């Protein structure tokens, strides 16, 4: 039986994790290899695409379940298709859990790490702290540990993001059942095809008293850490978001025969709208807007576009600034469409408020990062770790509705994400695993959680 490690006095500079560098390096290598393995589970040969309730989703859940069992967890798929692993604490199944995790679904033509690395790092943290491996030094924790591999963070298939984590947070909205994918399959039909019962989705919901919090590691999806030359950051908050499907209506007519003063070209109206998004967002601090999808109808080379469908994704550090931008944009569109004799309408398909990470969880993540510097002569052990607000959305946003959340960011060289060139180094993954494990141990020391 491996020796039990008892938790000593709290000390922010002394690492609490009694594990050597080789073991952490091996854990990071395993994470990198598994990111490659998961990248091969794709609907699109030569690219990575794995959407909610697809055969690829089922395959990665089976792999994640196998890896959960390997580190001593019980594994099951929940009622919304999230893959879930658990190691009970002192009060058995009744012990409230610290949840770790991220998502396994992807955008189209994705990178290998967005979401995935956070799930795999969480499994390595469980292996370091709780696995019954012969060489593991088991640590008694005052909470159970759970790993969640969320099934739909990106919203690639149905347009609505965070479906998996919303089910877990108990914020599932019945109106979502009629959302459709590009083939016209409704979310309800996709549930049934995947083998899930739409009537039981509520069973995925967790109660606040079952959880002590949620910690998520994720690559930064921008360049700040790389520019600062730092590998890890504490996340302070996650940007608020709204997504819309816009329809611009004009009139389809002959491309040659219709003089300019008779045209009501929906694409020109949509183009003005896309430029207005950039102009109005740039004028507000920390607001970003993107038109990522645009389709013309009837979509022929010799017909003036009669209708355009376009998406709008709005993000902001604060909800009120985001909403101010949308109101200004709506006024701008009324005016510009009016000048062109066009009509427009919008359907909101996603709205998420800014979520602030719980101060205690920010503190333990910070202490985790500081602990990774101990004994490393190349590191300034006294400098405060970077604290960033996340411009990208994460499962933690949804989970914030049921429990406190904290996040750890890993450097992303060049900051590119939602692209096949997305990257993270094995060295940063190793530091991240250590920081996350230390964060868990620091949380275990906190008086609020210290009693089993
Ligand atoms: C998810 O990556 C998002 O921020 O859209
Ligand atoms: Mn993403
Ligand atoms: Mn992500």
Textual characterization of the structure:
The chain is α+β, with helices and mostly antiparallel strands and 452 residues long. The protein is 33% helix and 21% strand. The chain is built from 11 helices and 16 strands. The protein has helices at residues 21-39, 55-70, 116-130, 163-169, 187-194, 224-228, 266-282, 319-339, 359-373, 395-399, 426-445, and strands at 74-77, 83-87, 97-103, 144-150, 211-219, 232-238, 240-249, 253-254, 287-290, 294-297, 303-304, 307-316, 343-352, 355-356, 386-390, 405-410. The strands form 3 sheets. Strands 1, 2, 3, 4, 5, 6, 14, 15 and 16 form a 9-stranded mixed β-sheet that branches. Strands 7, 9, 10, 12 and 13 form a 5-stranded antiparallel β-sheet that branches. Strands 8-11 form a two-stranded antiparallel sheet. Strand 1 and strand 2 form a beta hairpin. Helix 1 (21-39) packs antiparallel against helix 3 (116-130) and helix 3 (116-130) crosses helix 11. The radius of gyration is 24 Å and the shape is globular. Mean pLDDT is 92; it is low at 1-13. Bound molecules: glyoxylic acid and manganese (II) ion (2 copies). Residues 103, 114-115, 153, 218, 394 line the site of one manganese (II) ion.
Keywords:
single chain, 452 residues, alpha+beta, nine-stranded mixed sheet, five-stranded antiparallel sheet, globular, binds glyoxylic acid, binds manganese (II) ion
